[in-house]
Amino acid sequence: MSGTGVRGMVRSPFVLIVGAVLTWFIAAFLVWPNINVLIATFFPDGSFSGRAAEKLFSSQRAMKALGNSFLLAVALSITVNVVGVFIVLVTHYFRIKGSRILFLGYASTFIYGGIVLAAGYKFIYGDKGIVTSLMVKVFPGMDPGWFSGFFAVLVVMTFATTTNHMLFVANALKGIDYQTIEAARNLGASTWTILRRIVLPMLKPTLFAVTILSFLTGLGALSAPQVLGGRDFQTITPMILTFTNSPTSRDLAALLAVILGLATILMLAVMSRLEKGGTYFSVSKVSSALQKQDITSPVANAVVHAVAYLLFAVYTLPVVLIVLYSFADGAAIQTGQLAFGSLTLENYQRVLTQPSGLRPFIVSVVYSALAAVIAVGGLLFVARLLQKYKNWVASVFEYLLHIPWILPSALLALGLIISYDHPNPLVGGAVLTGTTVILLIAFVTVKIPFTLRMLKASFASVNSSLEEAAAIMGAKTLYVFRRVLLPLVLPAAAAITALNFNSLLDDYDTAIFLAHPLVQPLGLVIKANTDGAEGVDGVANTFVYTVLLMVITGVTMYLVYGRSSRGKSKKKRLPAVPPAAPVPGPGLPGAPLAGEEAAQTAAPVR
Amino acid sequence: MRTLKTLAAAAVAVTLLAGCGGGSTPPAASGEASSAPAGGSGDTLVVYTNSNGEGRGEWWTAKAAEAGFTIEIVGAGGADATNKLIAEKNNPIADVAFGLNNMYFSQVQAEDALEPYEPAWAGQVDKELGDGETYWPLVKQAILLGYNSDKISKDSAPQDWTDLWTKDEFKDRYERVTGLGTATAQLVFAGILSRYQDDSGDLGVSDEGWQQVEQYFQNGSPAVAKTDLFARIASGEVDMGQMPSSIIAEREKSFKVNVETVIPSVGVPLAVEQIALVKGTEKKEQAQKFIDWFGSAEVQGAFAKQFNSMPVNKDAAAQANPEVVDFFADLKQQDIDWDFVQENMGAWVEKIELEYMT
């Protein structure tokens, strides 16, 4: 039997091939470019100086902003889990009236994020917002600026980043064996006990993975603090971005990024430790699909319904307003005055009739799709091996694959340029700068950590006895992988692919440095139309692009994820799927989903 | 079926991974473009600029085509374009860069990424505005302090930046920046700090100078992301702030406010957009012809007319909007030691970000 030690590992040809490709990829695209850029940053004249650390640690502002980022990261890890688990249970576990509608509302975070999302919340709760105006009428004494600072940032980011819960935790929930729940009920366990002792423990690997992502999102928070943080709650990311852009201060940016990166790795280590040793799959021989549960207590039932619909309103209002405002003129958007009579199609006309036309959209769609598929396709093998072999070699590989989480994407891009602007033996003597390949490499690279985390979590909930059974019956490694394991992780893999795709669509930070001049992706066009002088058209264009991206990401999620989780997959997958498979529960809408904010989780700095 | 499809997808993905690994197979994304370095592709000139927004990029592409130049404009913010030019100096992709101001171009020049070239129109511009060797001036932009003239009369308006924090009536009524990433913000500080040049002070600036910076940040109302200064003026949140001259007319109209500008007795800092030939371009001759065409009086005049800019080319000024020309004719330019500013700006930005921004 194949052991999980290093020796067992090197005996398998499958492992050796994947290992060789992986080693080359990591060396060429993760380690070498980033070592180059870090050396250029910290040893500008060949000698190291402690200047960066000295400057940073003596700066009150930097320390406070860094502290705020950590505070937000820790707080988000908790609040996102609370809200995320609640909405997953409401839509997938409990019998709630109108859960399909609720699902669509909660899924709205999948298709947008960033600065526009923060602006959307400001339209509602900001000092001139709709809700605030209403409340001031009821309580004349209240402060119209109540929605700002840490509290506001935490609230907005909590509701904005439940995407991963809705996709992955919900998916893991569907894989729970209903028989264990029934058995517990027959033994007299209450709804609460079943939830706490059976359901939540089974979700642990996924919960750990999404917790890391929430932590990372908090550390990298950029737009919500800028829009809602006010004077007292600014985070470190804006400073990192400013310093990255200034050659003489780049060492400060790199040091800050490394500090955030190390914190992330530490979090990763803690979570891996917690995850170790558990059994996260159904051990019963004949398991059955999850059925929705009634909440027995009428009071609890009413409360859960009320909270669920309140959250629904919180989730959907900003989207509705953003879509409305995208038809208003820029001045109205910025002064927060919306008149229904003044909504026109002018903004859309201006954006869509540019000479560049649809080309940037197509370029971005092709690049993002390729990168998303390559990242997920390649890492399927890697995640599987890392999940199976738990030894030091595997750990080293795993941590190396998280390098893109450590550095801001601008630095990753600069590293690729300085490493491959001359013939380099690592890539067969080719020059990569100025080619169309280099951006694809960067896109794949930045998506690796997120993809790996989520894939590994989904492999962890696969029952290993299935694989053993197949092996005993004579199936080869690849056959087992293809026919037994792959179908089980496919829903998660599809969701990850779609999220990766969505998050790369409007990328600017990487593309600005690496795009081929004749094949420019959407991010650059958006930037040209929305940036610099934040004039009237600029802001209106931002809203239009956000809505257009919502449409693309919504369609993507529908095609990739929504359709496949409809009845169709049930029939087709059943023969190959063992009992504990994530068969969607009855009555689940295959909603169009997409994840924009998840994009932000994939890199500490965006 | 579904499994099969996914397997096929995975197989394609793996093949592609292997393919791009070799560095030789271009991905489908390359489309009609070749995967060869852009420097060698056809006759298209690759032009970097930070001045392509609001239809300017399209305007230039169309005009260049009329004159027989095929150009591909790559837009990026000033700092991004600068970093990109520097990062690519070993294997340049751009042939020409324009629109960056003298501070940005001097950084690129310091990294030896520009090729000296004297354009045909060099005699029609004030050489002092460029470096007289590699980058050459095109368009002037004044960096101004503007105030809401519906609310504040000329007599009660501030006379200089320093009034904002020394006079109580302006405290918290002016917008202050929350980052020094933009050229406009850097030029405002160049204008303030260079008044306090002192070789014995920190980074060449006296303690008094740094106190001004500290006061500026303590007494201003922080800018709000994605909310224009003019929007804040319109809603009464603030009454004044920094603004480049070219945007004022259009913003006044959009936000229905009236703004007057302050001309301090020391004068106003000017940002001058430039053009330069990129070192190592394979299309040197063609790029030089393009620069000759680009900065010529006729072309700069047409651009000024279209986009309300102030051309540096003396012969082009005739075609520019007379109001703009008059404004600049009356404008007193602040005498700034640009060598001093360029040498220190990076360190100033760092110090301000770390110590004074609250």
Keywords:
heterodimer; A: mainly alpha; MetI-like fold; 30 helices; globular; B: 358 residues; 9-stranded mixed sheet; two-stranded parallel sheet; 40% helix; 17% strand; disordered N terminus
Amino-to-carboxy terminus distance of chain A: 45 Å
**Outline type of chain B:** globular
SSE string of chain B: HEHEHEHEEHEHEHEHEHEEHHEHH
Count the DSSP helices of chain B: 13
- Rounded to the nearest angstrom, the radius of gyration of chain A is 24 Å
Number of strands of chain B: 12
> What is the beta-strand fraction of chain A?
under 5%
Average pLDDT score of chain B: 86
Q: What would you give as the CATH superfamily of the largest domain in chain B?
A: Periplasmic binding protein-like II
Biggest β-sheet description of chain B = 9 strands, mixed
Biggest beta sheet attributes of chain A: none
In the CATH scheme, what's the topology name of the largest domain in chain B? D-Maltodextrin-Binding Protein, domain 2
Please give the CATH architecture of chain A.
Answer: Orthogonal Bundle
Span between N and C termini of chain B?
60 Å
How helical, in percent, are the residues of chain B?
25-40%
Biggest interface found = A-B, 102 and 88 residues
CATH domain class of the largest domain in chain B: Alpha Beta
Question: Which structural class is indicated by helix and strand composition of chain B?
Answer: alpha/beta
